[in-house]
Amino acid sequence: MPPRTLALDLGRHSSYVCKSCLDTLRSANAAARPWLARPSSSASRRTRPPPPRPRKATAPDVPDPAQLQKMLLQDLSRPDPESAGINYYDQDPSGKIRKMRDSDEFHQFASGLDTEIETAISDLEDRMLSTAKMLRLMETSGGDQAKDKADELRKQFKKTLRLQYKGKTGPEAEEYGLLRITGFSGPRMRTVGGLNKFLARDTVVKGGIPKPKDVAECWKYYSAARKTLSAAWQNVPQEVWDFLWMIMSWQGEGVENPNRMHHLYILAKDMQAAGVPLRDSQQLVAIEAMFIEGWEEEAIEAWKKAVVTLGSKPETFTDYYELGVRMCALHGDTDRAQRAADKLLKSSHPPNARILLPVIRAMASKPATVDQAWEGYTDMRTLLGESMTIEDYDEVVAIFLTSDCTEYALQSFVDMMFSGAVDIRGKARLPMMVGNHFFIGKWLKRLIGVGDLDGAYKVVVFVQGKGVSASPIQLNGLIAAWLRSGSVENAERADALAWSMIRARLDHVNLREGRAVAKSDDANHNPTPALADGETDGEPEFRCQTRATAETFSILAENYCSRGLHGRLQELFQVLEQAEIRTNSFLMNQLMRSYSQNSEPDKAVELYHTMTKEQQIPPDGHTFLTLFNTLSVNRLIVRDPELTKRDIAVSREFFREMVQADWKLDTAEIFAQLPRTILFSMLKMQDYAGMIAAAQAMTELFGFHPTHTLLIEMASGAGSMQIQSKRNMQRLVAGKHTIETLMKRHRLSLLQTGHSGEEMTEEEMLNELHDVLEKFVLLKAGAENMPREDVEARVQDAARAMGVYDVVVEKDPDAIARGRKLAKGAAPHV
C-alpha cells in the first residue's frame, strides 16, 4: 500500500498507478482495505461491478499524456457510487463502526484532504493535461512556426509553475516552499483549513516583510487550530513552524506587536511538545518570553544551563550575556548581573557599554547600592567616551530621579552640559554656573518635555534646598502639564503647587507694603486651608518660594472653569486682588464663562461691565463670544418666548459694543467661532433683519464670507452635523437641497443679466454666497416676496440699533477703517 503522504502530491481520482506502487502491490498481494468501503447489503454487492485488476506494468514510468487523459475519461465515465447504492463505513481503534455520509467524506478520510482541496487539485491537473495536449498537437501537426510557438508556450508554462510553487520568502531571503498542514480530516480539518488558507495567501509576507495584518491574523488562525494540532503535532512540517515563528516574532518598523512575547512563549511550548528543536536564536527568545510571562526563576535557570551551548558560540555569545544581564537585573540579582556584564565587556567581542544601564537601574533602586550604581555610570561613561549620547544621559538622569537620588541626577545632567568638568556632589551651595534659575530652567524644561513630571518636581524641591528658586515660567509649565494629564493625583499636586506659589506672592506683597506676615492660621494668608498648610501622608508640605504670576492665576482659572468649580474660581479672584495682580481679559473671560455655566448670565454681563468700564480691562474676541453664549437661546434647551424677545435687544447691544471696542481677530479659533455664533444666535431668536445687518457688517469689519458648509448647516440646523442619526441625515439632505436651489436661482439671474455662464471668478463666487445667505434669511422670514424697499428699511433699523448704520448703509470708509477688527497681515475668513 503506498504511504498516505503521497496523497499530497499524487492523490487524484484516476486509475493510473505508478510502477513502484504496482511492485509493492504485487509483492504484498494487496487488495482493497476491507474497512474503507463495505457493501451495505447483498443487493449492493450484486449491483457494484468488480474492481478492475491492475495490469502488469509494461508501460514506462511516465505514461503518455494521451493514455493518461484516456484513463481519466474512463474514470469519470464510471457510475457514481452514490447512485449505485454503495455505503461507506469507518471503524475506530475501539472497534466501533460508523457510517460515512457520502463518498466525499470517504475520499476526504482516505486521502487526508478535504473535498475542496481535492477538487482544486483535480482542476489543476485537468488544466495541466489540456495544456500538455495542446502543446503536443502544435508540435506534431504544425509547421516550424507552430513548433517555435509551442516551445515558447512550454517555457512560459514551466515558469508559471515555478512561480506558483515557489512559496514564501522571508525577510532574510529564506525560502519556505509550500506551506501546508495535512493529516487531519472531518470536523477537525475546519480550523486547520483556516490556518492553511492563511499560509497559502499570496499577500502574506509579500516582499519579505510581514504587514501588521499578517501578524495579527497569524495568531488568530494559529490559536484557533492549536487544539486540533495538539492531537498530532507530527503532522505540522518544520517549514510551517519556522514560518509561524518568523511572523509572530516580527517587530519591524510600523508593525505593532504588543503581545509578541506571549505568543512566542506559547509557540515555543508547542514546538517543544511537537519535538521540534529550537534554533539558538529561538532559544534565547523563548527564555526571554518565559521571563516576561512571569516564570522568572525558571527562565534564569534555563539561561544558566545554556551557558555551555549558547554562551560559548560566537554568534550567540553577545545576545546570551545581554539577556542574562537584563533578566538578573530585573530579578534583583545584581551580583550575577554584574558578573555577566563584566564577562561581556571583557570578552574579545565588541563591547556595548550600554548593557550596564539595567545594572545601574537595579543598584540605584536599593539605598545600600546607590554608590555602586554611580560607579557603574562612571564606568559606562568612560567606556562610551565621545559616543555617549544625550539619550544616554537622559536615561541615567531618569534612573536616579526615580530612585530619589536627585543629587546624582543633577550631577549627571551637569556632566552632560559641562563634559564632567564640574562636581556638585556633597556641596551645600551649588556653584554659580549651575546654581541659577537659567541652568535649572533648562533641565526642568527638558524633564517636562519628556513627560517626567515627578522628576521635575523632585528637582524643584532639591534645588530650592540648595538656595536656588525655580523660575515661575517652568513651574507654570509643570502645573499645566500636571493638569493636562487628567490624573486626579496630578490635579491635586498642581493645585497644591499653584497655591503655594500664590502664598509666596502674598508674603512678598505683605513684606513690600511693610505689613507683618500673617500667621499660618490667618484667613488672608491661607487662601485654601485644605491645600496650603496641610500635610500629605505625614510628610510636611513643600513651601515653594517662587512667586505666582498672572499666568499662574490664568492656568488655575481655566482649570476651575472647565471643571465647573465656580466657588474655587470666585475664591481665586478674591486672592487675585490681595496679590495685587492686575486682572486681564483672559481671567475675566474665565469668570464670565463660569457664571454662564452656573446659570448666572446676569452676573456674567455685570462682571463684563464692571471690569471693562470701571477697571478699564480691554475685552477681546473671546469676551464677546462669551457674551453671546450667555443669551437664553444658547443656554436653554426649551426656549422661553419672553427671554427670546429680550435676547434680540441684548444681542444688538452686544454687537454695538463689539464694534466699538478696540480689539483684533488675532487667532484662528475666534476668527471662525465668533461670526458663526453671532449668526446662529440671531437665527435662533428669529432676528432676521439683525442677521442680514450683522452679515454685511462682519463682511466689512471682519473680512467674513459665509462658506457653503455653513449655509447648509444653517439651513438644516446647528446640531445636524454633530450627531449621526437618521433624523439629522434627513435634515442635512433637505438643507442641502434648499441651498442648491437658491444657488441655481442666483446663477439663473446672472445668465439673465448677460453673464456668459462659464467659470465664475473668485469675487463672483463670494458674492453668490452672500446673496444665497440673504435669500435664505428672507426665506426663513417668509419675506421672499416682500418689496425690496421694505426689506432695506428693516435692515437699516437693525443696523442703527447695532451701531453699524454708517458701515452697512452709508458705507463710510472712515467708519469701516475705525471698526475693522482684522489683525495686521490676517487673511479674510472664507
TrEMBL record:
PPR repeats lie at residues 584-618. It holds the Pfam family PPR_2. Residues 33-44 have a biased composition (Low complexity). Residues 45-56 have a biased composition (Basic residues). Residues 33-65, 77-97, 519-540 are annotated as: Disordered. NCBIfam families: PPR. This is Pentatricopeptide repeat protein. The lineage of its organism: Eukaryota, Fungi, Dikarya, Ascomycota, Pezizomycotina.
